[in-house]
Amino acid sequence: MLDIKKMNGTDLHTLELQKGQSLYVHFETQKGSMYMEIKAPNETSFYSGNGKDIIDFTLDVPESGVYTIVVEARHSKGRIEIQKNSNNS
Fold first, then answer.
1. In the predicted model, is pLDDT for residue 88 greater than 60?
2. I need a surface site. Which of 4, 23, 25, 60 has the fewest CB within 10 A?
3. How far apart are CA 65 and CA 16, in angstroms?
4. What letter does residue 53 receive in the DSSP assignment?
5. What span, in angstroms and rounded, lies between the C-alpha atoms of 89 and 85?
């Protein structure tokens, strides 16, 4: 979880994910501007948004590999939480 009180700049994180898993995402911009992009292992955009319209959602992982999460913020306050869930039995 990333609880942002005041952020300017860019932050990167990576997650090792398996096909069949899902990600629960809570992305909320309370002040300023934030942009988050999740890039698939092949560097294509898996998700991008600003945390203002839909703040709680689930994404199904289409392929196994390392996913990159990029957060850009300008004079921002908000919260980002990403949880891995396994759909494999």
1. no
2. 60
3. 6
4. S
5. 12
